[in-house]
Amino acid sequence: MRALLALLTTGILCMAWLLPTAAQQPANVPAALSGGDSSYLRYTDVFIGRNTRGPYLLSWKGVLSRSERVVVDGRTLTRGEEYTLDYAAGTLTFTQPLRNGSMAQVTYEVDAKTAQRNPQTLQLPLDMELLSAARGRLALTGAYSASLDKPGKETTLLGLTGELLPAGSTQISATFLTDPNARGRIDDKSGLRLQATAKSDLAEWTLSYLRTGREFAGAQAWKVKPDTDAFSTALKMMLSQRLNLSLGYQQSELGGSRAEGTSATLSYAPAEGVRAVVSYLNQENPLATVTTTSASVSVHRGALAAGIERHTQEQQSLLQGRSEVTTDRLTAQVNLTPN
Length: 339
Prior knowledge:
4% of the residues lie in helices and 58% in strands. The longest helix has 15 residues, at 2-16. The protein has 339 residues and is mainly beta. Among the domains are: 24-120, Immunoglobulin-like; 239-339. The chain has a 13-stranded antiparallel beta sheet with strand order 11-12-13-14-15-16-17-18-19-20-21-22-23. The protein has a five-stranded antiparallel beta sheet with strand order 1-2-9-5-6, with no helix packed on it.
């Protein structure tokens, strides 16, 4: 499986090399303090666009709610429509990518008694487009980060990102990253992420594969643990206007421990306001196998909503043996709207 996916990824990136060229250069400017003589301090951070939505890390976390003003190239942006700000974490995310060369100025307030400074880290992202065309692109991607609080703690990631649009609604993307300065084998210090989707009027198919080496420095940014090998695929089909079927399979291996699961859901709507659903889920790991089945019928008629459901979970455990639990639930609800 790994050899096949590696070959497929190489093919994707090689095909993208046949496309025309374009380039972009990112930059970054550190934060500047404007000052204040009370417990409420006002800060201004400046970012130079790197053609990404973010998130961009502010100097402080614990920002006072709705105290910010975000200006890009002289234009003030609208909160909630053109950007979102996580006040607790101090991270800014734009709705649209901040273009290369654009300057964003973020002014905000914090309470000096409760706010905390975000880690003093120098971050230099890299996203340089090598080739681009209507049906694909190839980019040199990576990042450099260094802790200003702890000299010597540096991380460098460098790799390639390729994307293909072979036909219609089919999309294939692959990202490969590695730390060129780390010691050890290439597969231990690298990460590979592959995704593919295909859509039609009656079906949608998705596939994803992710592998991280045991020393891969970008595992946290990908929100996974090192030494992970995960594969999943799902298929959604509209068998008729009233009947839908969903199938799924996933397999993961973390530190040598393997788990896998299969799922199936059948949904039928014989009439308006009436829906029946049958689902199956099987999960296996070295210690136990858990099988969950459920069947439900729901009815909505004007202000009345009612439903009945049976849920059964069967577990076969090496430690506790076999067990089975069945739950039946009947619900009814009346929505009263005042005149």
